[in-house]
Design brief:
Elements (H helix, E strand, L loop, with lengths): L12 E2 L6 E2 L7 H9 L2 E3 L6 E5 L2 E2 H14 L6 H6 L75 H17 L3 H14 L9 E2 H10 L4 H11 L2 E2 L5 H9 L5 H16 L9 H19 L10 H9 L3 H20 L26 H12 L18 H15 L2
Parallel strand pairs: 6-7
Antiparallel strand pairs: 1-2, 3-4, 4-5
Helix pairs in contact: 4-5, 4-7, 5-7, 9-10, 10-12
């Protein structure tokens, strides 16, 4: 029989050994329970109680001696200091459960600083753009630098350009809330990129992207600092340009140039149109691309496409594909008509129509009867296992036997 009923929660109580007050199960707190497993019961020399004793003293006397030693000794405590105070224990300071949890045998002194860890590093001293002074102008253009061959251990940490960039990075970090890891990565990347830099050079995105990524450094934050210095040039190709070139591949030159102008107007906006989101732009171009690919085999420009060509192409489409592609073609040819690229809009007066979703059709009585008959007729094929092939007493064998008996009785 259980000692306590099911669902019983012991109320807050005091430990029988150390008299600590708190929530715990049993008669002793967890610390006294583990203390009792390592020491035998004996009469305590200090309080004369029969409790688990270490060196003749119970855990409550040890806690009081440790507390008294802490108030009198300023250096880190050890067990010898605490044992010397055991004989002077004349009273006990009560405490709550869990106040004396620690990983070492003695209490550690409070940290000298008010925060954990190392003190924060001082901010970099104010710096400005280095004075170039007199310098020899280069005879040839700047030779592209290969940052991948530079060892990060050989970075020039005394460069005045690096001191100025670190000061700008500190100001940006304070304004934008960069964390410690981001600041460390930015300073490391700046030391790597600005090593060997001289006045008049330009740091290009294509030269530093791959080396910084190889060092697992944040390229975006480093580029932000370099843009503040005015010595950075973004020569990277936008992802929109790469995606646009891939989607226009295979079209006739005339159709491709006109479709590209239409796509850029959707993306960047025009005099009488607002820019669309990039996802919407690709939705329109992907909808018009299949028809443009088919017409590129016969025509060179959009003005050669007729209304019959559009109707012939749309006859093979149904549902959602027809709806999305017709909307894209109407947008393309309407833009071409407004800009004088076609003489007539071949998609005019071709209604898109409302997209009709599938409607659930009712079943005829014959279909209902066949479904009911298939559900109530037992299976007699080779795929269903026989009761003999299953171990006796299994659930499947019991179900098979019940089905057989039911069908045999006609129930």
């Amino acid at each position: 029989m259980a000692r306590f009923p099911k669902g019983y929660v012991k109320p807050t109580d005091s430990c029988d050994s150390c008299l600590a007050w708190g929530d715990f199960s049993g008669r002793r707190c967890p610390t006294c329970y583990m203390f009792g497993r390592s020491h035998d019961d004996a009469s305590c020399t200090g309080c004369h109680r029969v409790q688990p004793a270490k060196w003749g003293y119970c855990r409550l006397c040890w806690c009081q001696a440790r507390l008294s030693t802490k108030t009198t000794v300023s250096r880190p405590l050890d067990e010898t200091d605490v044992r010397s105070r055991l004989g002077a224990v004349r009273h006990h300071q009560l405490f709550f459960v869990g106040m004396h949890y620690r990983r070492r045998s003695t209490l550690s002194p409070p940290p000298p600083r008010g925060r954990r860890g190392a003190p924060p590093k001082p901010p970099p001293s104010p710096a400005w753009r280095p004075d170039p002074g007199w310098r020899q102008l280069p005879l040839f253009e700047q030779i592209p630098r290969d940052h991948g061959r530079l060892d990060p251990a050989d970075a020039d940490l005394a460069s005045p350009w690096l001191a100025w960039a670190k000061y700008l990075a500190h100001q940006l970090a304070e304004a934008r809330g960069w964390g410690r890891n981001i600041r460390f990565a930015v300073n490391r990347g700046l030391a790597f990129v600005l090593t060997g830099y001289i006045e008049g050079d330009v740091i290009r995105h294509t030269e530093i992207f791959a080396p910084l990524r190889a060092l697992d450094l944040s390229v975006g934050h480093i580029v932000t600092v370099l843009e503040e210095t005015g010595i950075f040039e973004d020569d990277s190709e936008p992802s929109f340009e790469r995606s646009l070139a891939g989607r226009l591949e295979g079209l006739a030159p005339g159709i491709s140039s006109e479709a590209e102008r239409w796509t850029r107007v959707l993306h960047e906006g025009g005099p009488r149109s607002l820019p669309r989101r990039e996802g919407t732009v690709w939705l329109y171009l992907n909808g018009a691309r299949p028809a443009l690919l088919e017409w590129s085999s016969r025509y060179d420009h959009l003005r050669e496409v007729t209304r019959d060509d559009v109707l012939t192409y749309l006859k093979a489409l149904h549902g959602r594909p027809r709806h999305s592609q017709l909307v894209a073609l109407r947008s393309l040819f309407s833009w071409a008509k407004r800009n004088g690229l076609v003489f007539r809009n071949p998609t005019s007066r071709i209604k898109v129509g409302q997209y009709e979703y599938a409607v659930l059709q009712p079943l005829v009585p014959e279909q209902v009867d066949r479904a009911v008959a298939a559900a109530t007729t037992p299976r007699h094929d080779s795929s269903s296992p026989s009761p003999r092939s299953m171990p006796p007493g299994s659930p499947r064998s019991a179900r098979s036997c019940s089905m057989t008996s039911t069908s045999a009785t006609g129930g």
